[in-house]
Amino acid sequence: MIPVLAGALAAILLAAAPAGASTTQEAMFQDDSELVYPPRAQVARTLDTLQGLGVDRVRVSVYWRLIAPNPESERRPDFSGGGQADPAAYPRQNWKRYDDLVRLAHDRGIQINFNIGGPAPDWASGGKGGIVNPSPGDFGLFTWAVATRYSGTYAPPPGQQYPPPPPPRNPNPLPVEVGPGGLQPSQSEPATAAEAPEPVLPRISYWSIYNEPNQRVFMSPQYVNRHEWSPRQYRALVDNAFDALVKTGHGADTILVGETAPKGGGERDDEANMRPLRFIRALYCVDKRLRPLRGRTAEALGCPTANQVSEFPRRHPGLFQSSGFAHHPYSLLTPPWLRSKNPDDVGMADLRRLTGTLGRIFARYRQRNRLPIYNTEFGYQSKPPDPFGFPQYLQATYINQAEYMGYVNPRVRSAHQFLLVDAPPYTQYPSNSYQYWSSFQTGLVERGGDVKQAFGAYRMPIWIPGARRKRPGTFRVWGAARPAPNGSAQRVRVQYRSFARRARWRTIKTVTTRNLRNYVDTRVRISRSGVVRLAWRGPSGLMTSRPAPVTITR
């Protein structure tokens, strides 16, 4: 939501926040299938829903292959006008879905993170499908075109040069390999014959580069001759995209690198996904002890072989001067508090591995800045519909706990929810198989329209750390009035109900929020087992959190 207080007052409110808490972390959301591909009116309704949930920013996949002309041809198109860096050289209709979303979100005060990435058109990659060795130079020119179009000064000209291409086969950024019959997005509204110039497009000032480059379904190959290859490829993509953003006037914007998936596979198996910390070490040209690589190993990974400490940051400013490192700390099959067994994996409970690795790398290269961490994709599968997911009450519980874990980590800048509506299953597989459910059932709403418990839990989260203990005492209660305008002082009641028969809710404390995102962080005394909830009266009436249990075992 848009802050409603002046900057000076906001600073005062932030100063009153608990020490070490990430009270400014944004509520980020993603559901391309509901925001990019449907007709404009449906997109508007989805944005209204997200606005009611209190979403600050939506992450949107800007697919190179979806916008580029002739994406299934191996022959490079004859770009006219200003060439590949000119947005007018791309089919006008191919931009329309993004133009509509940007305008609609701007009207509602919802910000956008444009995640620019593949798949590439065939003419800019090493194979059909656009995931094999995408061309860094061509990607930089495409990024230049996107950045120019959404610079805040660009008015789309009339006319178009090419007919729109078909949509890509798998538009959703999924961190698991999927079958050939993946989600098929609907086309945007049909092209019109209107020739009048359109109004200036709103500015985008928040970017991230590619999606899960350590996963072979997004970038291939991961290894070549048992040497890490995708980090070298991604490094070149970042070089060109970062340069394009800076030169088009977006150098002061938020620019994120990484976008890494949380897990990987075999060690140096050419067919495996790469574990995120292994990927990061190769990306930044360091060994397991985080020392700059030398000799043949450095040469094989495209790293400098001399003067590494000064030469590597000079050659790759995007890796060091970006605004933050984006990561997807999924823990799909385990609770968010459970650490990953492999030390190179990074789930929600392992974020210190990530911050520690990046911090030591930057120190090795004598870089004073430390990249904050942005959670840009996260969620939990629910049962129903997915028989392999968690019961819906646990889905609701875990998304609240995960946001709290980000809140208490001052390096984390965003909390994320992936999907509003569950993705459809892959019907080419048996309905009782894991493959059938390997799409994402992480939504807050089932495909049939039934609202899950997670919907309310996301809108008004609550978490009580250490909620089970032997004796009565003081409990920390954390949560948020997410739909309230950012930076507004909101009165939130902490209510308690015992497990006694006919017990009723009673208010045990009233808290006034005093931070940018309207987080509640307080302590209350509880003497017997029961449940706690937050209650807040907003413009649409009374809202309450899910009931969070407190257990005293004496």
Q: Can you walk through the features of this model?
A:
By secondary structure, this protein is of the alpha/beta class. It has 2 domains: 27-460, Alpha-Beta Barrel (TIM Barrel); 468-552, SOR catalytic domain (Immunoglobulin-like), CATH 2.60.40.730. It is built from 14 helices and 21 strands. Helix 3 (40-53) runs parallel beside helix 5 (92-107). The chain is globular, with a radius of gyration of 24 Å. Residues 1-17 and 161-194 have low confidence and may be disordered.
Query: What's the CATH superfamily of the largest domain, by name?
Result: Glycosidases
Let me know the number of strands.
21
Note the gap between the termini. 44 Å
CATH-assigned fold name of the largest domain = TIM Barrel
Q: How many distinct folded domains?
A: 2
Major beta sheet, strand line-up: 9-8-7-4-3-2-1-12
Please give the largest β-sheet: 8 strands, parallel
> What is the 3D form?
globular
In helices, the fraction of residues equals 25-40%
Low-confidence stretches: 1-17, 161-194
Q: Overall mean pLDDT score?
A: 90
Work out the helix count: 14
Q: What is the structural class?
A: alpha/beta
Q: What is the CATH class name of the largest domain?
A: Alpha Beta
Strand content: 15-25%
The CATH architecture classification of the largest domain is Alpha-Beta Barrel
Radius of gyration of CA atoms, rounded to a whole number = 24 Å
